[in-house]
Write a structure and sequence with these properties.
alpha+beta; Jelly Rolls; five-stranded antiparallel β-sheet
Length: 634
């Protein structure tokens, strides 16, 4: 409440008892007559309105759609004897939509709110309109004839699906001291805002919850949580939009803002329902979306047009039927989910409460709660949303706990892999060894391993099918098995055959491992056997090798051996297919030719070039340069 308004309200409360004792007319409402149509003569105090219908307890029916929207209300109001000038007249109307009012006292216009057709500009009205009465128009102790000319927007004259008439309009008048009536009008508006306290508190709580869920959804990269966050933020804005409208808001601006918020909320409901329940029916999903799109288009037109026409009437019926169909499809989807065809029955049960509130309203039996001043439809929205948010946050928390445990496992696997696949390979007498290992994820399925033997060194480079933790563990298993079998298998072909049988025995899910095995001697001689791996490159040229099946495919596979002798300073480059299969943003593969061209570079340079092109898989590069003692000391 603004400070001047608060001060004025306190002063008014202090003097009100003294003034009210002299103004009994404020407590008694006069007989009110009304008539549809528009005639300037009805403002005259001499006009006889005895044949007009009489309002029942100040309530009168709004004009029908077929009318021009105009109606007049007339009453004779006693001006209190003790009313101190200046005088004012107050008008209280209870109507759900913006309208235009013009108030007359004793045949003279004392105030207008909004603009009448042909350039209609209806405004959202406050709880109580007060117009000052010019001096001499009404005197204390007299009876004044008050007439109100009103025009309603076409949508206010519409018909619902079941209730075949618009909601009634409630009207009340009083004449009294201007300072008192202005103070009472301020009080009425402030009290209306205070009554919104519970709703505003709910809206604030849900918006804060929405921000929390939004943060969680972004962190978890969870689309369902992001949709829920949008629901939590848009829902309160939508539900409190109408009650929070300030007096003076135009009908056009109000309709546009309201239906934009409504469209966002409806889109979120569709996407949220299909995502949470895991529905794959595209036809019903498209129909669901079509309903809110059709509703929004029709509502935008109807809510902003100021002229009643056949097209406007079609738009109003389209609006109602699209809304009805939207709730029917939504209810059907939730019923299907409750029947067990969705992923989450609890969410379906909570969401269906909203449809219950809507259908009760359509049937003419809306349920209103005195506290916090909301309907069953609105309360169902809040209850459903709170339930869904808590449920999703719990599921996300459990998923985070699981991912944290998985992160710990990945860390342990990465540490083990780093120990088995060191960044700096062990030295081999008479050779310079350079290695580069860059997994595509935290852990990779590529590996290399060097096993020292009494008169030779066994070297393996391999690539496990798949990625991630499972592939890394298979690589660790292969390294362990190779280390255990190397002493029993002097030749690379024999070692690969034994490894293959072990992998077939241990691999039960159809995975496989490509592996190149080399037995390296100090005189530059290498014996190689290949189990489906890329062939190595010698001084920039591919070395032709017989390639057998990868390890783990079939148990009775045999492998051929090839012998290669390097001269001093010759380089043999072994690598995984992560280099060849590097892919640019345009989809171009790095390819074999580029790989051959850079095969004479250092291991790290080769890996960096492939990464710059676009790493898609684990990259492993190993280079062996023959450097006998004479070369080393040269």
């Amino acid at each position: 409440m603004r400070k001047p308004a608060l001060t004025f309200f306190l002063v008014a409360c202090a003097i009100a008892p003294h003034i009210l004792r002299a103004q009994p007319a404020l407590a008694t409402q006069p007989v009110i007559h009304y008539h549809n149509g528009d005639n300037p003569a009805w403002s005259s105090p001499s006009f006889d309105d005895g044949a007009w219908p009489q309002a029942q307890s100040g309530s009168l029916p709004a004009p029908g759609y077929e009318s021009d929207g105009f109606f007049w209300v007339r009453a004779r109001i006693a001006v209190p004897d003790g009313a101190a000038p200046p005088l004012a007249v107050s008008l209280r109307t209870i109507d759900a939509f913006p309208s235009v009012e013009e108030l007359w006292v004793n045949g003279r216009v004392v105030g207008r709110y909004g603009d009448f057709p042909p350039h209609a500009r209806p405004l959202d009205h406050p709880q109580m309109l007060v117009f000052d009465i010019p001096a001499g128009v009404a005197q204390p102790g007299s009876v004044a004839v008050v007439a109100v000319r009103t025009w309603d927007v076409p949508y206010d004259r519409s018909e619902s699906l079941v209730l075949r008439h618009p909601a009634p309009v409630s009207v009340a008048f009083s004449i009294g001291s201007a300072p008192l009536l202005h103070a009472l009008a301020t009080e009425a508006q402030d009290r209306a805002l205070l009554r919104l306290g519970p709703q505003l508190l709910l809206a604030l709580v849900f918006m804060m919850l929405g921000l929390a869920v939004l943060t969680l959804g972004i962190w978890a990269r969870n689309r369902t949580l992001l949709l829920c966050a949008l629901w939590l933020v848009a829902l309160p804005a939508f539900l409190v939009f109408g009650p929070l409208l300030l007096p003076g808001i135009s009908a056009t601006r109000e309709a546009i803002t309201f239906f934009i918020l409504n469209a966002i909320g409806m889109w979120v409901v569709v996407e949220f329902t299909w995502t949470v329940q895991g529905f794959r029916d595209r036809i019903f999903r498209a129909a669901y979306h079509l309903c809110w799109i059709g509703l929004t288009v029709a509502a935008m037109y109807v809510g902003t047009t100021m002229h009643a026409s056949s097209l406007t009437l079609v738009g109003m019926y389209a609006l109602n039927w699209f809304l009805f169909a939207y709730n029917v499809i939504g209810s059907g989807a939730n019923v299907v989910a409750l029947a067990g065809r969705g992923k989450n029955r609890l969410v379906a049960a909570a969401t269906i409460l909203i449809s219950v509130g809507y259908f009760l309203g359509v049937a003419g039996h809306p349920v209103e709660f005195a506290w916090p001043g909301i309907s069953l439809f609105t309360l169902a929205f809040y209850v459903c949303t709170l339930f869904i948010a808590v449920l999703l946050m719990r599921q996300t928390w459990l998923a985070w706990r699981s991912s944290e445990q998985l992160r710990v496992e990945f860390a342990a696997a990465r540490e083990l892999q780093q120990q088995l696949v060191p960044a700096q390979p062990p030295a081999i007498a008479g050779w310079r060894v350079d290695a580069a290992y860059h997994p595509a994820a935290d852990v990779g399925g590529d590996f290399y391993h060097i096993i020292e033997q009494p008169r030779a060194t066994v070297l393996l480079i391999g690539d496990v099918s798949g990625k991630g933790l499972k592939a890394a563990m298979t690589g660790v298993l292969t390294i362990g098995a190779a280390s255990a079998l190397a002493g029993e298998c002097p030749g690379p072909a024999q070692l690969l055959a034994r490894l293959n049988r072990e992998m077939v025995r241990l691999q039960k899910d159809g995975g496989f491992v490509t592996c190149l095995c080399a037995r390296v001697l100090g005189d530059g001689t290498l014996t190689l056997a290949n189990a489906g791996h890329l062939a190595p490159y010698r001084n920039g040229e591919e070395v032709p090798l017989d390639s057998g099946l990868p390890l783990g495919v079939t148990a009775d596979t045999n492998y051929a051996e090839s012998t290669l002798r390097l001269d001093a300073c010759d380089t043999l480059t072994l690598l995984s297919d992560g280099v060849v299969e590097a892919q640019s943003s345009s989809g171009e593969l790095f390819g074999f030719e580029r790989t051959r061209q850079i095969s004479t570079h250092s291991a790290e340079a080769i890996a960096a070039t492939a990464q710059a092109h676009g790493q898609q898989d684990d990259i492993t590069v190993l280079t062996l340069t023959f450097a006998p003692a004479g070369v080393l000391h040269a």
